[in-house]
Amino acid sequence: MDQAVWTEDGIRLWAAKTGDGEPVVFCHGGPGLWDMMADVAADLSAVATVCRWDQRGCGRSQRQGPYSVERTVADLDAVRAHFGWDRVALLGHSWGAQLALRYTLAHPDRVAKLVYVSGTGIDDDSTWHAGYERNLRNALGTRLTRWESLAAKERTAEEDQEYCVLQWSADFAERALQHAEAMADPWFGVNFACNAALNREHSPDLRAGCERLDVPALIVDGTADIRPRSAVDSLEQALPVVSRVRLSAGHLPWVEDPAGFHSAVSRFLAGP
């Protein structure tokens, strides 16, 4: 059932809760997107109480800033507190994996477990971003020319959606456009201002904090993700209590290997 969560500065966030069991809060990707993990929530609801929410300014939440990582961490804590949970598991995807990690480092006593899906690790972006850009263009193939033309112009709302669908198609190993079009249904419109503000922030060195983190973590990768998976190696090496699962999939592994994703995540959440 949909619920309104109010932040300390009066912003309304959309959230929804399903299932039964220990609480798991999802952190969607972006920044500037919205929760697209309804299928994952339905799948995991048999083993957990799943909370989905749209981040500030995104999707079904109030489209208003300010936008910052610190503010988004505080919003995530508002979601946790709204449901009356002392401790939760976090499942973050892509940018949301970084958000979940940052929250866990800030509030380790409030996180029971961390599932880090398709994130980009703790090293500087310069270590992986050039490889990502090359892989993106290669994966777009014949769609590259149209994507570049849309990227270079001021777009209409319809062109924004087309641009995003084309870019998202590179995140899948198979049936790329079909999966990307499904991501855009329903379409809430990307908050590009939020995306730009959060991407401008310089990420602090998280290594020392990760090395002290006594929270069990599961890293889930898709081996066909166009973001080089080597970017996550240093995070895996830094976390004291960590396991890693590699699936034959792209950036959204639950779409292309749902059985493998469910097995890995449900087993981890059910474990000690």
Description:
With 272 residues, the chain is α/β, with parallel strands linked by helices. It has a single domain (2-128, 188-270), classed as 3-Layer(aba) Sandwich (Rossmann fold), CATH 3.40.50.1820. It is built from twelve helices and eight strands. Helix 2 crosses helix 3. It is globular, with a radius of gyration of 18 Å. The two termini are 29 Å apart.
Oligomer: single chain
What is the CATH topology classification name? Answer: Rossmann fold
* Number of helical elements: 12
Strand content: 15-25%
Helix content: 40-55%
C-alpha Rg, in Å? 18 Å
User: How many angstroms separate the termini?
Assistant: 29 Å
> Averaged pLDDT, please?
97
Name given to the CATH architecture: 3-Layer(aba) Sandwich
Based on DSSP secondary structure assignment, what is the total number of beta strands?
8
Q: Given the C-alpha coordinates, what overall shape results?
A: globular
- Compressed to H and E, one letter per element, the order equals EEEHEHEHEHHHHHHEHEHH
Our count of domains comes out at 1
Q: What structural class results from the helix and strand content?
A: alpha/beta
Helix-strand blueprint:
Elements: E1 2-6, E2 12-19, E3 23-27, H1 38-44, E4 49-53, H2 69-82, E5 88-93, H3 95-106, E6 111-117, H4 129-140, H5 144-151, H6 157-169, H7 176-183, H8 192-200, H9 207-211, E7 217-222, H10 233-238, E8 242-247, H11 253-256, H12 258-270
Parallel strand pairs: 3-4, 3-5, 5-6, 6-7, 7-8
Antiparallel strand pairs: 1-2, 2-4
Helix pairs in contact: 2-3, 5-6, 6-7
Protein name: Alpha/beta hydrolase
Organism: Amycolatopsis rubida
Family: Belongs to the peptidase S33 family.
